[in-house]
Amino acid sequence: MSFADRLAAAVQTSGSVTCVGLDPRKAQLPAPIRDQVVGDTPDAWAAAYTQFCTEIIDVVAGRVACVKPQAAFFEQLGPAGMVSLGHVIAHARKAGLLVITDGKRNDIGSTATAYADAYLGDASPWGSDSLTVSPYLGRDSLEPFVEVCDARQAGIFVLVKTSNPGGGLLQDRVTDGKSVYAAVADLVTELNAARIGKSGYGPVGAVVGATYPEQLAEMRAAMPGAWILIPGFGAQGGAADDVKAGFDASGLGAVVNSSRHIIFAHARPEYKDKFGDAKWLDAVSAATDEMNGQLRF
Ligand SMILES: O=C(O)c1cc(=O)[nH]c(=O)n1[C@@H]1O[C@H](COP(=O)(O)O)[C@@H](O)[C@H]1O
């Protein structure tokens, strides 16, 4: 089944549009995980990241649509971290969760093929269902990813309108009456055109931040065949009302990512006293329920 159709099935089966972001950070790991790190070595931290992420996966499996490991936090640990990333991706997929690896990769076409080959589908070393991709190098840098998506039933999420405050410097720039982000959206729509599956969606998704609700509505209309990954919910200030416009009439078409507010929920003021470090997984569970509840429109 195509990635787009699998994502639709994952949303329908789990009854959730939540994507749990797996962004492990040394300083914020809960004490029961941090205490097991003996010696400040990349191997020890990598083992802690694997344990932290796989325990989260076991708690959220079946209750959310997907997970999004952020490669940067694993890369920070060097080779041991990249091995950990592989374990985390494999564990999530075994648990029945779709994996969006967040690498924001891209390069000239022939190198783009290498990135796609590294991350997309069962045949790749990091075996992910999908990958976040930068559009900055243009159409011929995206096409190799789409070809690998076709061959391996995988997907990509192209950065269209990012959640960060400074994204507008380039993305909002208007040329020939059109913003850069709208031009990227047109490219997404073109690349999907001949690839729309049963769910009504194609393999080329888009990233649009929860911090820009008006542009999210505009982008939903501009890319009717694209799944939208909406980051910026929770820790960056995005709320349920801000993401509503990302969904189609049947509640499909978007998944909403939250990383810190779920994985480090034990440290949030509203959960700290109730759960704290000792019951950090209960805090993950409660934060997942809370987000699922907020996103039931
Ligand atoms: O591609 C992304 O996932 C992404 C795009 C974007 O525009 N903004 C954004 O925050 N992200 C990622 O989404 C996650 C947000 O994390 P929290 O702010 O902790 O929920 C991080 O992994 C970011 O790298």
Automatic annotation (TrEMBL):
BP terms from Gene Ontology: 'de novo' pyrimidine nucleobase biosynthetic process; 'de novo' UMP biosynthetic process
Record's keyword annotation contains Lyase: yes
Keyword Lyase carried by entry: yes
EC number of this enzyme: 4.1.1.23
Catalytic residues in the record: K104
Keywords recorded for this protein, A-Z: Decarboxylase, Lyase, Pyrimidine biosynthesis
PANTHER family: OROTIDINE 5'-PHOSPHATE DECARBOXYLASE
Name of the featured protein: Orotidine 5'-phosphate decarboxylase
Organism the protein comes from: Rubripirellula tenax
